[in-house]
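Go through this one:
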Amino acid sequence: MTNQRFFMTMLFAVMVIAFVACEKDDTDNTEKNANPSEAVGPIDDVVTGEAVNLFYTSATLYGYVNNNLQNITSMGIVYGTDSEGSKLVRTGTKATVSSFDPGTNNRRFSVQLTDLKPNTTYYYYAFAGIKTANNILSFTTPGESEICPDSQHPHLIDLDLPSGTKWACCNVGALSSEQYGDYYAWGEKYTKKVYDPHTYQYWHEYGPPTDIGSDIAGTQYDVATEEWGKTWCLPTSEQCKELINETTSKWTSRYGVNGRIFTGKNGNVIFLPATGQRIQDGVFDVETYGYYWSSTNKNSVNANGFYFNNSSMTCTEFGCCFGCTVRPVQSK
């Protein structure tokens, strides 16, 4: 049993990021955005909070409820395009939630809005039970991105790469180029709450993980193929290297989201947000690093991918059990 524990400890220890060749530096040191969701607790019974994660057709809105207000069974946001409060009450759309955000001491709740219109100003206020906030706030959704011709994602973006590979405009699970999308362990096709060896589908307690192949592009283990159809797949490690080496890249912020914009020789661009990585039950390095899977397996413990920050891009490998994002491709 002692030997088995030692083997498991050593196997988990090798699941660390290994830096390999294919590094490309730049000197842009854009400052990380502050987290907009850290707000002061409310004084009134109900206070309308900030709007964050603004995209063409979606947004996240916050509300706050005083700790003295008890027995709240429902709360939410009323929103619409009427700026006058009395009209907003009559014509606004009500979006409700039934619980507060976990881990918040100031009784915060959040509402995710979808099906919004691009380049449109919305007005909103919070409510809890029969109580309504006194403050009405507003936000404006951004206009359509120059990356995509419309909001019917995903789109194929031709970066004039030597291999003829075309990259998707957004991540799997995202509704726009700037959204993070979903996080997946390598070879898995579903999201989950915890990403570690014990929740990894192909993990074995007393032996190496199941070998599902050295390249899973287009196979039953490819989440891009599963979610978007057989013409889409994970990029190979060679396609990731090609993206880094055959385009110019710059760290930037689009609509408040940090990431890298890659420009092909033909002038076409894609934006990859700095999504961070999911390890156990947390998300790490959001807004400072982007971690993306390839279809290529280094071994049954680590798989290839690439990561970037505000100064470099590197083809590397990650522990298969950890959660990374996926940017699909179509090959020529």
Observations:
- Residues 1-25, 27-43 have pLDDT under 50 and may be disordered.
- DSSP finds four helices and 20 strands in the chain.
- The longest strand covers residues 18-25.
